[in-house]
Amino acid sequence: MNITRWAAWAVFISAMAVSGSPASAHPHVWIEMRSDVVFNDQGQITAMNLMWTFDDAYAQMALDGLDTNGDGVYSPSELDPLTRENIASLKDYGFFTVMRFNGQKQPFGEVTEFGQIWSNDKLQLHMQVPLKAPLDPTKGEFVAKIYDPDFFIAMDYAREEPVSVVGAMPKNCQLVVKPVATDAEVEQTRAMLSTKGPEWKPENDEDFGAIFAQPVIVQCKA
Between 3-17 and 56-63, two packed helices, what is the crossing angle to 10 degrees? Predict the structure, then answer.
């Protein structure tokens, strides 16, 4: 790994490794997200597809030295070492993804479908995060949040088509993407947190970052 790409990787890892507080942390890497909720033929939720587009500054550092044949194009094979580094490290952080069913955090299976592309001068990482066991959305509420709990990586959904459905979602179910919190709502939440003691924790054993994350919800009518 050359020095420039090592620096980019160090920024990415530092952003994941250094802890901060919602009031004081500032992002070092910016990611625009798109996601899919994946259903099987039985209408059960089996996975989340994640598509992350990195900011230009990180991408330029990360790509340095990867165009091994000098053709000005970053092929999947040239990007493969960086992709595998990303996936291996993200595993230690749960891929910044939390999926809950009726409030209970759900375990993941192994992430085996992933890749990275360079297109339109943008670097995009995609992966499928599978659940260990399929979930029947007609029997409870499914909520997914994708975020860095320490706020060192800003992870925001794209304005257009941020979340989609793949597969056979039951007809009595709907996908709901909650809107981004307004500045007033964020300040209200921060004010609330400032009144809590050091032992206080959010509901459902969530971390503080989850309070500010934009939830994706599958809701079904009886």
Answer: 130
Tracing tokens 């192994």 back to the chain, one arrives at 110
pLDDT digits (tens, 9 = 90+) for 4-19: 444 444 445 544 444 4
Q: Measuring CA to CA, which residue among 35, 219, 215 is closest to residue 137?
A: 219
- Alpha-carbon span 66 to 80, nearest angstrom: 9
pTM of the model: 0.81
* Distance of alpha carbon 24 from alpha carbon 82, whole angstroms: 30
Give buried/exposed letters for 165-175 (b at 16+ CB in 10 A, else e). Answer: eebebbeebeb
Q: Is 6 exposed, middle or buried (0-12, 13-18, 19+ CB in 10 A)?
A: middle
Residue entry with tokens 């000098």? 70
